[in-house]
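Known limitations

Files may contain more than one protein. Parsers should not assume a single record per file. Below, a two-record file is shown to illustrate correct handling: read the sequence, read the token line, then continue until end of file.
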Amino acid sequence: MSQETVVYFVNLIIGLILAGVMSQYWRLEAAGMSLRPWIVAAWVLTAADLMFVLRAGLPPDVVPRMLPTLMVTAGHVALLLAAVRSTERELPLRWAAALVAAHLALLLLVRTVPALNGWRTVSNGVFWGGLSLVAAATLWRGPERLRVVMRFPAVVLALQGVFHAVRSALATQAAVDADAGGRAVVQILGDVEVSLFMVALFVGVLVAYLRQSNNELRLALENLHQLSSMLPLC
């Protein structure tokens, strides 16, 4: 088993644990809350990790090269949808589909024109980093109560966007200089970052919703105490 396959497999295990824990928490404690879109995003990104594992272990014609990449894009779009839903707003699904379709068109162009092959990582970083920054900005522009509990996930998404900007810059330099070693370094950075990003983001989201639940419970208890103090004593 190659080092690349091991990294993909570790990312898959981490994704399964995080998505499973969030799903169980939502089922038991948070049904009806807007945690569900974050769970969907976690499962989509975990499916992308599965695609990477299968692509590394199976013949190229079984799992197309661009399929795992598109799954990651779908995961980042799902994160944006979750951020928008958390702010009690709506993002039309047709816009989400259009973003994935636009990335697919770009990947097909890169595949069709061999001279552009070195720019695939650059385009991926632009899409993923841009979506992460927009999701972070969405959380920061939400209601005050949301900004308080979702501050850490917003910071993680912003750092993800900055990381992809740096990664795209390194990939651009490697593409211009035709540096295979540089492209390998960029790939390693991306593989390691996946684990750190998923752990930081989804643990942060889960903690945020735990804080929100505790705040709602404390407010309910305070209201109950005020009402009970207003009742006449018998």
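...continuing to the second record:
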Amino acid sequence: MNNADKQYLEIVKNILENGYHDKNRTGIPTFKLPHQIMQFDLSKEFPILTTKFVAFKTAVKELLWIYKDQSNDVRLLQEQGVHIWDEWAREDGTIGKAYGYQVRKFKQIDKLINMLKTDPQSRRMIISLWNIEDLPDMALQPCCYQTLWDVNDNKLNCMLIQRSGDFPLGVPFNTCQYAVLVHLIAQITGFKSGLFTHIINNAHIYENQVEGMKLQLTKEAHELPQLWINPEINNFYDFTADDIKLIDYKHSGKINMEVAV
């Protein structure tokens, strides 16, 4: 089995067998485990699940909405056929001062790229979406809220910290999209892609997702696809969804599961 499905499904099994069962803000109880970790060498593999279909293009569009467009306007996603934020959209069409708003407010992508180019051994290369002052004015406080960056032997490494992870739906989506972000930043700054470590503080499966997870555990795993990024792009803000593609993505089909809002 490929490394992405192997690490993911091992955690799924552990949550189902040993997870703590309790209530949460959504009203749908979960089985949860704390401090779950997956790690990938992006120079050798692209971490996307093959035991079920993961909407890669949708993940890329959301990633660019947050980090390139630095937007909180859900309508920009809707124009691209992406509706994953519709449930949280306010009357003004935004999600408040969340996600892309925080990237833009502090020019965090620009600062990261500049530091990677001028001081790549800095130990202060961090992007944080967890702005305590603005938390009350966010439609949803960020789940993937922080990335820490490091350069080792000309390779760009990234650690993603996720406070809360819907393991069936959100986590596979987040893993592949932040792996893409590492590749994009690496290309712009002249590094190779290195380690990507995904840490989930509260990894959970909702009660109404358990059967879907059990079904996924029976599915066949395939070889991981190759990631293609347009090599002609040298400015982060020039990337479009068409510049980022998966080559030969084979999977075992969709598994429908509900999102808890």
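Parsers that stop after the first record will miss the second one. For reference, the second record is described as follows. Helices lie at 3-18, 56-67, 74-78, 100-105, 108-118, 170-189, 210-216.
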